[in-house]
């Protein structure tokens, strides 16, 4: 549905990056930029809307005009899903990125057909898991920007990362 | 992708319900049950996974077996999207349900192919909007259950509801 355009953005700002990240590879202040951008189309907005958020302003341009959004706008849950894809593409956690909950999520600007989204993620906390000894919890703050560098969504999300196996 | 099975669940537990809800129609303690259930299929899990959360345990049964999830599991963002549909179906806000942010969201059990999800929503706060005089903010706690009555996701989400127009 959406084009991924590889661009000059690096996977991680800073030193050499491991291929797969373990808990020990994360540190507070670490930043990850999305690889390329996600282009959002009217088709994707309507398709997602019809499946998961069937409200006029996510389905139809004319209905959108007469709504709060003054035009067709992406469901916030589509934006969240696209941001998840950008996250998974920019951070490769060993064994996969297992969500450990959302602390906060805010939609700050409507996402429109033709918008290109990118993300900046910062690690804001690392701690060992209380319930699962073999995992740590990585807390991240994500800003999603459109092509005008407006923040369209911000979130604080936790994920699990496995503790590095000892030899 | 998913069948909606109308069942005996009522839109609102309690007194007579307006067709479209304005801010004044919401009160703390008010409860809404989803209309019917959302059946989750392997096809939908894989389709959503390939678009928005391309990780092996959301794409392929065999790869899922060797993962944290011990089988194919829905992306948490698919679960969140399905829950949004159940919310929109069970609460009709005048002018549409405009998200005003997520306070918390937790995935407490994997969602599997064949699961049927339903939601219970409780209003936990109502206040006038500071920034938009014509709206109020409704704070809701949502529990999403599978067919075994296990909670698969819980969230606290705010949405806007318009203040009733004065005659």
The quaternary state of the protein chains shown equals homodimer
Helix vs. strand class of chain A: alpha+beta
Total beta strands of chain A = 7
Please give the radius of gyration of chain A in angstroms: 17 Å
Overall mean pLDDT of chain A = 90
Q: Tell me the major beta sheet of chain A.
A: 7 strands, antiparallel
Shape label of chain A: elongated
The helix-strand sequence of chain A is EEEHHHEEEE
Task: Calculate the terminal CA-CA distance of chain A, rounded to whole Å.
Answer: 43 Å
DSSP helix fraction of chain A = 10-25%
Most extensive protein-chain contact, per-chain counts = A-B, 35 and 36 residues
Runs of chain A in which pLDDT lies below 50 for 5 or more consecutive residues are 1-14
Number of helices of chain A: 3
The proportion of residues in beta strands of chain A is 25-35%
3D architecture notes:
- The structure is a homodimer of 167-residue chains.
- Chain A is built from three helices and seven strands; from the N terminus they run βββαααββββ.
- Chain A is an alpha+beta fold and 167 residues long.
- In chain A, strands 1, 2, 3, 4, 5, 6 and 7 form a seven-stranded antiparallel β-sheet that branches.
- Chains A and B meet through helix 1, helix 3 and strand 4 of A and helix 1, helix 3 and strand 4 of B.
